[in-house]
Write a structure and sequence with these properties.
This protein is α/β, with parallel strands linked by helices. It is built from 13 helices and 16 strands. The two termini are 21 Å apart.
């Protein structure tokens, strides 16, 4: 690598506190070694390693960690440890007294999955963020090294503070099921990747990207997971307005829960009911894990969107399927399906 722009990385646990559990220590040490191998100083937020039970019971501690990371002047990049399912519970401690808006400074913020909610929080206060990777699932990948496609994207972000272009990975990997110490150094089966696939609409389209994990977005409109998620997210206006969505590209990817087709349909319909699809410039869709329900998900998208003029690009290597790219949010992007590229303007 060339001389890198990022010097200090802060690792935060805004959803699950898994990073602090003893059974994950071997992965944590592996990831630390890789980050330090880039010459980075790595700092953990004050509560990042306090474990699942403590962080589940104390969302205010997780919120305090995010504020800490923005307020620490030495921190250049905020890296989420992993995902989870209840980061919406941080909202009162970040917005009741404008805490987040007053703390935010121009730093790299990277995470995915349940971190979708944190991306929407930061979008509300005007910060452009990066979606697609996290510490445990990517930097700590038990293989002999980080997955090459994943590593190249992370290195570009560390080196330049930006992502200039995304192209498809040549391969995709089966989901890892063994994360024990015995799994260190093992490789998951790889398969040829099909590249970006244009499901409908013109091959070239543009706009700023926003979105994330479909399952997490659904929790903003459905109380099936938590009884108060809809009310809390509505109280703080977490889901952007139609005017905010106008001209944007909606990124969607599905979780490791591999939602069955009937649930996927409900999730996409919930987004359509907001009117968002009527103002978008396009939709980008991540590859599902192990390509489970891929054909069904494609069909559901086309049927529910029900607008052949709206471009839908399928099979991005982002989100829960490996390997993973990094997608800048809030940056003008040009999608060219024929050229198999998404190109971003400079930050």
């Amino acid at each position: 690598m060339k001389k890198i722009r990022v010097k200090t990385v802060a690792i935060v646990s805004l959803s699950s506190g898994m990073l602090g559990e003893p059974f994950i220590r071997h992965e944590l040490e592996l990831g630390l070694g890789r980050l330090r191998g880039y010459g980075l100083e790595v700092r953990f937020s004050p509560n990042a390693l306090r474990g699942r039970d403590y962080l589940s019971r104390h969302p205010e501690a997780r919120a305090a960690d995010l504020l800490w990371a923005f307020r620490e002047p030495e921190v250049d990049m905020i890296l989420c440890s992993t995902g989870g399912d209840d980061t919406y519970r941080l909202l009162p401690w970040l917005f009741d007294h404008n805490e987040l808006a007053e703390a935010v400074t121009e730093k790299i913020f990277l995470g995915f999955s349940d971190t979708t909610v944190n991306h929407l929080m930061l979008h509300k206060v005007g910060l452009s963020t990066f979606y697609g990777q996290a510490f445990l699932p990517d930097v700590c990948e038990p293989d002999r090294e980080m997955l090459p496609y994943t590593r190249r994207c992370l290195e570009e972000l560390l080196e330049t503070g930006a992502i200039r272009q995304i192209r498809p990975s040549d391969v995709w990997y089966e989901a890892r099921r063994d994360f024990s110490q015995a799994a260190l150094g093992t490789t998951m089966p790889a398969h040829p990747n099909g590249g970006f696939q244009l499901l409908q609409g013109p091959p070239v389209f543009s706009g700023e990207i926003l979105g994330g994990c479909l399952d997490t977005l659904y929790d903003l409109f459905d109380n099936g997971r938590y009884a108060d998620s809809v009310a809390v997210c509505q109280r703080y206006g977490l889901f952007p307005s139609l005017e905010d969505w106008r001209g944007k590209l909606l990124l969607l990817e599905t979780s490791e829960e591999r939602p069955p087709p009937e649930k996927c349909r409900r999730m996409v319909e919930a987004l359509k009911d907001t009117g968002t699809f009527s103002v978008l410039s396009g939709i980008l869709v991540g590859k599902p894990m192990d390509e489970i329900y891929a054909e069904e998900y494609r069909r559901i998208l086309l049927e529910v969107v029900d607008d052949p003029s709206l471009p839908i690009l399928w099979n991005l290597n982002v989100g829960h399927a490996t390997p993973r790219c990094i997608i800048p949010f809030g940056v003008p992007a040009v999608v060219d399906a024929h050229a198999q590229a998404i190109t971003f303007a400079g930050r």
